[in-house]
Description:
Blueprint: H1 6-11, E1 19-22, E2 25-28, H2 40-44, H3 52-58, E3 72-75, H4 97-100, H5 113-123, H6 126-133, H7 140-148, E4 153-154, E5 169-171, E6 174-176, E7 180-182, H8 195-206, E8 210-212, H9 220-233, E9 242-246, H10 252-265, E10 270-273, H11 283-295, H12 300-311, H13 339-346, E11 351-356, H14 359-367, E12 372-375, H15 389-399, H16 402-406, E13 408-412, H17 418-426, E14 431-434, H18 436-445, H19 447-468, E15 481-482, H20 484-488, H21 493-500
Parallel strand pairs: 7-14, 8-9, 9-10, 10-11, 11-12, 12-13, 13-14
Antiparallel strand pairs: 1-2, 2-3, 4-15, 5-6
Protoporphyrin IX containing FE binds at residues 29, 36-38, 42-43, 46, 51, 54-55, 58-59, 63-64, 66-67, 186-187, 215, 319, 322, 327-328.
Amino acid sequence: MANMDGAEVAKHNSKESCWIVLESNVYDVTSFLSKHPGGAAMLLKQAGSDATNEFKKYHPLDYVNHLPSGSLLGPMDPNTLSKLNVQDEERSTPPGSAKEENKLPHVSLCVSCPDFEAAAKLVLPHKSYVYASGSANTALSLRGNLDDWSRITFRPRVMRNVGHVDTKRSIFGHSSQYPFYISPMGTLGAIHPGAELEMVKGAVRKGTHMVVSTASTKSSEQIMTTCLSELEKMGGRSPTQLFYQYYMPVDRKKALNLMHVVKKAGYKGLWITVDTPVLGKRTADRILQAEEALAVGLSDDDSAETTAEWETGDENTFAPSMGGRPVSGQLSPHTTWEDLLWIRKEWPGPIVLKGIQCAEDAKLAMEHGCDGILLSNHGGRQLHSAPSSLMTLLEIRTYCPEVLGKIEVFLDGGLRDGNDVLKALCLGATAVGVGRPFLYALGAYGVKGVERCVDVLLDELVTGMRLLGITSLDQCRPEMVNASRLLNDMYRPDTWAKSRL
Ligand code: HEM
Ligand SMILES: Cc1cc2nc3c(=O)[nH]c(=O)nc-3n(C[C@H](O)[C@H](O)[C@H](O)COP(=O)(O)O)c2cc1C
């Protein structure tokens, strides 16, 4: 293949003919524009330029192998690189200031979880911040997640000798110093160049457990390898374990394949996400997509088509070919409770259903032999007007309390303080997941931020325990919190039935 001239590549910068450079090779991605699950606008923005850096934020390099055959046009002539189009680096919000003027606050100035968000907002590309902070529809579910924690107050006991406190908790027999773990979040490459590898290093250094997302930028094997080598460096002093969040691919063979890969890699449990049969309406993402489409001259119709294709999942014939790693296009809307039977046969370890949102499903999960449930509404990113996980926990306590003693019960969504963790544990949770605070900490400060975020939560937890009058998490009891305000709003079948008469 002849070397490609930069000036020639630069001319192919439209939807009629779109060429991009990836790792010194030129690709014609024109026919792939409408198939790209991330949208045509992402690619068009890079048209006629070197897209390698942007590409690496979102994908492993071997993704290029999944372009239609014939897409590779040839190697770039290195002497003509300067003739390529140059794209503006993604700018921070507010435009450009913090990084350049070194205004990112020192990590020690992050003394509570919201500080990490403020810092990340200064340095993250606008698009990445929108991805992380985004939520469904009018953000009602997200607001409920954040607000409901403040509707519960403590009932502290005094004079209890709280000189020493023990914050240990186990998840399926794996003990750590923390009753919280890092929640699974996809595409961390858009947040930090080290993506999940950087996050997992922070987790290991502090000894927290972490759940790894199917939609990770890095492969499940890479993440596990990094974890193991970091554990080795710690000389056995870190108890960190990795669990795997499983989006079940539509195709059974691929679903099995993925499970085998994860099992072989050594993940300790399968967190099956069940609140995402289709992607929720991510309002801010939609606006951004539309803006990007308009900026590169795509009509509303073009962008609507692209979005619909990757959101509806099983129509996307491209996605299932992505190297055994499910992609957004592979969310399965067909999953039922029966699927747990074959999953159980294939997966010997603990199974947790992630995204339980009412008492009936909590009970069903227990009856289907699940080892745990995670009460979650996906950080308010899925169903509009979904209940907070606290509300679901209260339902379970009221309508099927037997679940709490029988299987492990986790919560996530809106936890921003070690005292929130304590409230969940008083009401019977085994442990809780924390999402965005860790993501923002990673985005602003890398590993250091992740470690700092653990410290902040732990410090709040320890102080909270002492002021509440307990020295071990086993002493957490429901009577240590006043949940009356939330209970007032809880679903009541009787009232509902009467109102229908
Ligand atoms: C040219 C070859 C490319 C291929 C084969 C490809 C493939 C894919 C696939 C399969 C997905 C689905 C989700 C995932 O696996 O994370 C995706 C999503 C995405 N891609 Fe690409 N892509 C390419 C280029 C690019 C480039 C150059 C960019 C950035 C400029 C980009 C940005 C994105 C984004 C932002 C998403 C959405 C991520 C999400 O919502 O989870 N892609 N792409
Ligand atoms: C940016 C982002 C990406 C996420 N990606 C996934 C994912 O790939 N799989 C999944 O099951 N949940 C995902 N979640 C949901 C989290 O696992 C978790 O339920 C939620 O973030 C908890 O709420 P919090 O962020 O308020 O702590 C994601 C959440 C965010 C914010």
